[in-house]
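Worked problem 6 (solution included).
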Amino acid sequence: MRRLVIPVAALAATCAALAPLLLLDGLVRDQAFRISAALLGALVAWVLVRSLDSIGTRPDTSPFTRTRRWHPRRAVMRWLVALVQILRRAVPERSVPRHQLTGIVRDSARRIGAYDALLLPRLRAVADERLRASGGFTLTDDPVRAQAALGADAFELLRADRPPPIDKRADGPGLEAIATTLDALEAL
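Solution. The predicted structure is:
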């Protein structure tokens, strides 16, 4: 209501200022009424806008009502953050391409279950192929010659009669043992 006191007072003052215009004569009075009517219309429009603006508002009494108010800057920032998140999901990460075996070797070095299930069959297949190409035998055909060709450490990891692990979460052979086995396979 306090907001309406000044506009209503200005409206009353304008009406009081129009009264002397009635005493003017002819064309001057017509021009004065047109100008005063335009000013009065602008003042009435201003009063209406101010009164309609103040109808639905409540004073900011709590931080909750202040935070719920819409702010263009906050809305734009929220929109930009959402847009950046969408674009991050859409653009694939650029990383160094890894071979599929990199993860298998890393997991096999840590856990014996991964070694036995993922890496050991591949290493045995490579060992059999290399032993067959170089000497005409495989790990299962002639274990004594295979041990002599590969070395004791590599043969221990690759031997065909190796029992499956009881605890699949136990420690794996380690990267050094896998590296020595791969070196032995390359030397064939």
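Discussion: The mean pLDDT is 78.
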